[in-house]
Amino acid sequence: MTTSHIFFIPAVVLAGAIFGWIYGRKMLLAEQQEQRNAEARKKARRQQQDDAA
Question: How far is residue 15's CA from residue 9's CA, in Å, rounded to a whole number?
Fold first, then answer.
């Protein structure tokens, strides 16, 4: 094992952690937005049903 492994392996692990954090956050925000949209659609449907009744 060469000394380059001492720098290469932690750099790859760090890059993976950063990549996962960035894309994980994007996925979390997209999921939260989808939940808000679903709740807004449900609320609109309930409002329409209340108006029709």
Answer: 10
| Dihedral angle, C-alpha 25, 31, 33, 37, nearest 10 ° | 180
- At 42, list the tokens: 């449900």
Whole-model pTM over 0.85: no
What is the rounded end-to-end Cα distance, in angstroms, of the chain?
76
Pair of tokens at residue 11: 């750099």
Mean pLDDT over residues 7-28, rounded?
96
Rounded-to-5 percentages of helix, strand, coil across the chain: 90, 0, 10
